[in-house]
Structure formats: C-alpha cells, structure tokens
Amino acid sequence: MAFSRPVPGLRVTVAGMSSPAIAALDAAGLPYRVIRHGPVRSLAEAAAARGVEVPDVVKTIVVRRGEDDHLFVLTPGDRAVSWPKLRALLGVSRLSMPDADAARAATGYERGTITPFGATTAWPVVADERLRGREITLGAGEPGVSVAVDADAAVAALAATVADVTDPEPAR
C-alpha cells in the first residue's frame, strides 16, 4: 500500500479544493492514501468504491452532549452506536444527534464528509474498539473523497478514547 508522507510547506488540495482534513493529517504526520471515488449512496457502495470491506468504512458520527458540546464517535461501517454503552462511558443520561445544519456548524463539514481531522473544533473522539489493528477509510471533508489510514495511528493522533460503544447494525 502506498501512503503519502507530509511535505513541509505544501498547500494540500483534494478534488481541486483546499482540504482541512488532508492538512490536519499532514500536520499530524500520519501516512494516508487519498481515494477519489465519486458519489455513493450506501455503505456497501462506499466499500466497493474504496476497495475495502464494509467494516473498514468508518462512520464519523457527531453526537451532542449539550449546548455547544459535541463529540465524534468513530464506528465500523457494519455497526451502529449503542446509545446505552456510549451514555455509560461518558457518564451522562442524555445524548442526541444534531441535525445536518447543526452538525455542519459544529464541524465545518457536510454530512457524508465529516471527519475529526481538520474539523473547525477539535471535539473529543470516541473510537469503537473494533477499529484497532485495521486499515480504515474515513471521509476526507469533501464529497466523493476518502482517506485510508492505519486505525491505531489515527486513534492515537486524535487522542481518542477507545471502548466498546457499538452494536451490530440492525438488519434492514
């Protein structure tokens, strides 16, 4: 696998636009591979377009704890946030998911492109323990673009709390 290394002083662009996510990955010194895949309509399509299995497509979920208090939860593509587990981990009785406008205001990213890397606020990150030891793909802040990174390195760079915070995705 070919990963990119940061180049000091290089202005980073993805899909012809400046990308805070790629700049943040470079600033963290994380090796990564950019994947340009165009629009996708499902996790299965995203996995196929990225050349990975569904669990390796990581969903970045924005969670609201309170007024102007959010966090990111990283979940494997085949799993869903377990609200009871997450509330217990955080020691709170109530959490919610912001609507699309509030998520954009909290992160600087549109839904479907959200990543903790380069977000307008460095909210705390919780990563499901099943991400460890894998290569994962994350949104890169732009539609149709993702990055492949080593999960352990990404979790360390984000100073994420790692815990069991998911359940299997419900059957549809």
Structure overview:
This protein is α+β, with helices and mostly antiparallel strands and 172 residues long. It has helices at 20-27, 43-50, 83-90, 100-107, 151-157; strands spanning 13-14, 17-18, 33-36, 59-66, 69-75, 79-81, 125-128, 135-139, 145-150, 161-163, 166-168. Residues 1-15 have low confidence and may be disordered.
Quick structural overview:
The longest helix has 8 residues. A hairpin with a 2-residue loop joins strand 4 and strand 5.
The percent range for helix content is 10-25%
Secondary structural class: alpha+beta
How do the SSEs run, as a string of H and E?
Answer: EEHEHEEEHHEEEHEE
> What is the mean predicted local confidence, pLDDT?
90
Largest sheet: 4 strands, mixed
State the strand order across the main sheet.
4-5-7-10
Low-confidence stretches: 1-15
Task: Measure the end-to-end span.
Answer: 34 Å
**Quaternary structure classification:** single chain
| Dominant shape | globular
Number of strands: 11
Which percent band covers the strand fraction? 25-35%
Please tally the helical runs, counting DSSP H or I stretches of 4 or more residues: 5
Query: What is the alpha-carbon Rg in Å?
Result: 15 Å
Keywords: Signal
Signal peptide: 1-23
Protein name: YbaK/EbsC family protein
Domain YbaK/aminoacyl-tRNA synthetase-associated: 37-151
